[in-house]
Write a structure and sequence with these properties.
The complex is a heterodimer. In chain A, about 55% of the residues lie in helices and about 10% in strands. By secondary structure, chain A is of the alpha/beta class. Chain A has two domains: about 160 residues, Rossmann fold, CATH 3.40.50; about 160 residues, 3-Layer(aba) Sandwich (Rossmann fold). In chain A, the strands form two sheets. Chain A has a four-stranded parallel beta sheet, sandwiched between helices. Chain A has a four-stranded parallel beta sheet with strand order 6-5-7-8, sandwiched between helices. Chain B is an alpha/beta fold. Helices cover about 50% and strands about 15% of the residues of chain B. Chain B has a four-stranded parallel beta sheet with strand order 2-1-3-4, sandwiched between helices. A four-stranded parallel beta sheet of chain B has the order 6-5-7-8, sandwiched between helices. The radius of gyration of chain B is 20 Å and the shape is globular. Chain B starts with a helix and ends with a helix. Classes of the chains: A alpha/beta, B alpha/beta. At the A-B interface, helix 6, strand 4, helix 7, helix 15 and helix 16 of A face helix 5, helix 6 and helix 13 of B.
């Protein structure tokens, strides 16, 4: 047996997008701890809450969804879920919520500590489950909850009634935060923050759109890591700068014929759904070992908060993936598939997310037909490792490969 | 009629909603299906349609699986199933509110699974109490009105005001019935369920008349004795097997916090010249429900207060499997009951459930706790 030769670790390139983005994501947690130490206000915030509010008011933010994903990816999802379940929470409840409620109880988890909140800021444009989760957090932690309700829109376009309702709530939340904590809204600061948020969003959209090149200049699993910055720091100046670096690196990769997908790109697929954080390596390897690059996901679109007016900002927050109807959701995905020459769709039927999975069967059928690509699904969970089977995943991916192979052969024979 | 005869009549209605619907259709009336949890039935009624509750049914799911993953609640899945197999044939439309995540997906799936019955969305605000929330509810109602007009309905402010009065009187009758039933342990859980369930399948003034007759009959009857009073909480409590177990265990429902029962009738439409705004204000005034934003968890307090006020022995949470709004509320309910020294237990039920042995064991243990 040959002796293993250990490679020297690659020196850290502090100018790389990977370093910059990793640092921003890590700083988001340390900044909140520092703010707490300095007596500043810390908020726990849902991922698609208008970040412009806490950023403008100088409130430090922690994103429980991001924390839960980190805890799950580091292997503590089941342990934390067990804590919540012992308190009476059903294991049918979203695993992010279970992990977060367990953290609220224990106030510690070495896999991802966070600063405790003075207020929780909830926005339900991702799901109504968020409302219940935050109600219970507010009760358990004895802190106020501010709710910005962005209803699920059954129509294709955002009607004026929703714009008016959400706009009124935006200023209502601002007024309540001012009153609760003696803060002062500053329009100039707001303009600056919206500028940062749009800059980060534009660069993110540009970077993810680089998947249109064949081969793609990046491994789609990169997006799942970089996305953390779009969740936790898109209103910060550093986020825009780091995202622009990412875009430049992808363009350089394209020009040089290189990619962060470090094997031959035989197949290009879209991955649908939240990542299986406890099995990130397994799900990634299951694709990469077959030469499958997940070139796009709806996350590419989800954090594209680019707007040029207040109403445009409200409209953007009303148009996030889980707040829109089947037809609009479908068309966004069809565009991603077509723009990025996708050959197959792999759907994560995520037990934690009833809303995301609830009309996915019909929508993925329609996407498959519209794009003439095969669709397959596997059962999993974003954070509870007990709801995933590696064998099923492997079988389903292999099935997808066989159909994509047959399609390639048919096209070659034409 | 005696109260037993009235209960038999209500049982027939509760057991045969399809026969009720067909009878209305045979009379030349149009029927609009109203899905859980809250829909503006008053508007449907005022515009000349029969609002017909569509809360699914106890049955095995087959066709719905073409659209729904297994972990969606069986109420929503069975509504879709009934639509797909033609049970709702003849209905003019279905109104589905988006008050929980599964209901959002039900509306989207309905459009493709049941193409011959139009889907009318009703989008409610969660910040329903401020003026901007009331305005948004009103806009949602206007959307429903516009959709019903396409189906031949006519909107008239005075007609809506009159329908609101019909519904307010029905609400009062159902609240009174709940109070009277609390004093009549001899009424079975199944009979109580029939009284509430039948309300979804009858034109409301017809149902009010029969409920008022039932109240009078019960008030003229001496109360029975010997059962343990409990409060049941959840979305549904209409499964015959479940209700039979309560009777068998010597338990009776002295109050409920069931979405398909008392939660429907707690709030009236207030006075107001603009009936649509008054109806929106009714929604603003609603509370104490898992699908209505409740930062203060008033629902939990209401349960504890009701138990104390009615001398109830314990709380039985009837959890519809995969209903996450209820699953989140269970923990604070459990904590509050325990803190107040109120015995509390949970049983999981499901529209597909054929065997209730586990529920029986849980309820038996619960009964033993109450007897100690």
């Amino acid at each position: 047996m040959a002796e293993e030769v250990k490679k020297a670790p690659k020196p850290v390139d502090v100018n790389s997008a990977k370093y910059k983005l990793g640092k921003i994501a890590a700083d988001a947690y340390t900044d909140a701890f520092q703010a707490k130490k300095e007596g500043k206000i810390v908020a726990w915030v849902s991922s698609n809450f208008p970040v412009e509010i806490p950023e403008t008011l100088g409130i430090a933010t922690v994103y429980p969804e991001n924390q839960a994903a980190g805890i799950a990816a580091r292997g503590a999802g089941e342990r934390m879920c067990n804590v919540a379940e012992a308190d009476g929470y059903s294991n049918d409840i979203c695993a992010y919520a279970r992990i977060s409620l367990a953290y609220a109880k224990l106030k510690e988890c070495p896999e991802q500590e966070v600063a405790m909140p003075d207020v929780v800021l909830c926005c339900n444009n991702i799901c109504n489950c968020m409302i219940k989760w935050y109600e219970n957090l507010a009760q358990d932690l004895g802190v106020p909850m501010l709710m910005l309700d962005i209803p699920f829109n059954p129509d294709y376009d955002v009607p004026q009634s929703i714009i008016d309702y959400v706009s009124a709530q935006f200023w209502d939340v601002v007024a309540k935060l001012e009153e609760l904590f003696g803060l002062k809204w500053d329009d100039d600061k707001f303009q600056e923050v919206t500028g940062f948020s749009c800059r980060a969003s534009r660069a993110w959209l540009a970077a993810t759109a680089c998947a249109k090149y064949t081969p793609s200049p990046f491994n789609g699993f990169d997006l799942l890591n970089h996305m953390a910055v779009m969740v936790t720091a898109r209103g910060k100046e550093t986020a825009g700068e780091a995202m622009e670096t990412l875009y430049k690196e992808y363009m350089d990769n394209h020009a040089n014929g290189t990619s962060t997908f470090r094997t031959e790109e035989k197949y290009r697929i879209m991955f649908e759904g939240i990542a299986c954080w406890p099995y990130l390596r397994v799900t990634s390897t299951g694709l990469k070992s077959r030469g499958i690059n997940m070139v796009t996901t709806i996350y590419a679109d989800a954090f594209g908060f680019d707007y040029n007016s207040f109403e445009g900002m409200i409209r953007a927050y009303c148009s996030v993936p889980n707040a829109i109807n089947l037809e609009k959701s479908r068309d966004k995905r069809i565009k991603l598939c077509k723009d990025n020459n996708v050959e197959g769709l792999l759907v994560h039927t995520n037990r934690s997310c009833k809303l995301w999975s609830g009309f996915m069967y019909e929508m993925s059928r329609q996407i498959g037909e519209a794009c003439d690509i095969p669709v397959t699904s596997f059962d999993g969970d974003q954070a509870d490792p007990r709801n995933f089977s590696e064998a099923q995943y492997d079988t389903r991916v292999q099935g997808l490969v066989e159909i994509m192979d047959a399609n390639k052969a048919a096209k070659g024979a034409m | 009629m005696t109260h037993t005869e009235i209960f038999e009549k209500l049982h027939e209605v509760a057991l045969n909603p399809k026969a009720q619907m067909d009878a209305y259709l045979a009379q030349g009336k149009k029927v609009v299906l109203c899905a859980p949890v809250y829909t503006p039935e008053e508007i449907v009624h005022a515009m000349g349609f029969i609002p017909m509750g569509a809360w699914g049914g106890d049955r095995e799911l087959n066709r719905a699986k073409e659209y729904c993953p297994a972990f969606l609640c069986s109420i929503a899945q069975s509504i879709l199933e009934l639509g797909m197999i033609g049970v709702y044939e003849g209905a003019s439309a279905i109104i589905i509110p988006s008050l929980c995540d599964t209901l959002k997906t039900l509306g989207q799936n309905w459009k493709y699974a049941v193409k011959d019955i139009p889907f009318i969305p009703m989008t409610y605000p969660q910040n329903r109490k401020p003026a901007f929330g009331v305005a948004f509810t009103r806009a949602g109602y206007e959307r429903v009105v516009a959709e019903l007009e396409k189906l031949g309905g006519k909107f008239d402010n005075a007609a809506l005001r009159a329908s609101c009065e019909v519904y307010n009187r029905h609400n009062a009758a159902m609240r009174k019935l709940d109070e009277v039933l609390a004093k009549h342990p001899e009424v079975t859980a199944a009979q109580r369920s029939d009284a509430f369930k039948s309300a979804f399948f009858m034109e409301k003034s017809e149902h009010t008349a029969i409920i008022e007759e039932l109240i009078a009959a019960l008030e003229a009857t001496p109360a029975g004795r010997g059962k343990k009073p409990i409060l049941v909480s959840g979305i549904l409590a209409d499964a015959p097997q479940f209700n039979a177990i309560l009777d068998e265990m010597g338990l009776y429902i002295a109050a409920d916090d069931i979405a398909a029962q008392s939660r429907q009738y707690r709030t009236d439409v207030p006075a107001g010249d603009d009936a649509l705004t008054a109806l929106a204000e009714k929604f603003a005034n609603m509370d104490n429900c898992s699908v209505l934003y409740d930062q203060e968890k008033l629902r939990v307090k209401l349960i504890v207060d009701t138990v104390k006020a009615r001398g109830i022995a314990g709380v039985l949470v009837v959890m519809t499997k995969f209903c996450d709004p209820e699953e989140f509320d269970y923990v604070p309910i459990k904590r509050a009951c325990e803190a107040a020294g109120i015995p509390v237990t949970i049983v999981e039920t499901d529209r597909q459930m054929a065997h209730y042995e586990q529920a029986r064991t849980n309820i038996e243990t619960f009964r033993d706790m109450l007897m100690m």
